[in-house]
Amino acid sequence: MDPKQPIEARIDDLLSRMTLEEKVGQMTQLERQNLTAKIMKKYTIRSILNGGGSVPWPNDTAKDWVKMVNMFQKWALSSRLGIPMMYAIDAVHGNNNVYKATIFPHSIGFGATRQVSFEI
Length: 120
Fold this sequence. Notes:
The longest helix has 16 residues, at about 60-75. By secondary structure, the protein is mostly helical. It has helices at about 5-15, 20-25, 35-45, 60-75, 110; strands at about 30, 45-50, 85-90. The chain starts with 6 loop residues before the first helix and ends in an 8-residue tail after the last helix. Strands 1-2-3 form a three-stranded parallel beta sheet, with no helix packed on it.
């Protein structure tokens, strides 16, 4: 792929070189606990979900999370076409799966307005 080409041309080029299996894998998302390098390679998985309560290790730190995501990305980039993966976190309030992370209340807007009741 020539990075000097317009993005549309690069997309068309990449799609023309992808197999049907690679296209399906590109649109498939697995929960990270169910993913291995072998599965990621075999099925060309390129979207990973971190579901609620799923953590890399007990009492994990932000550095542990970076290490885990980098490992998944390394697996993705080692594929035939080198397509990176996307990593999704199920976190409405903030990533409360990171040990000692700051968590924000869901309705922080109410607290920020100093509204004493929920009646408007």
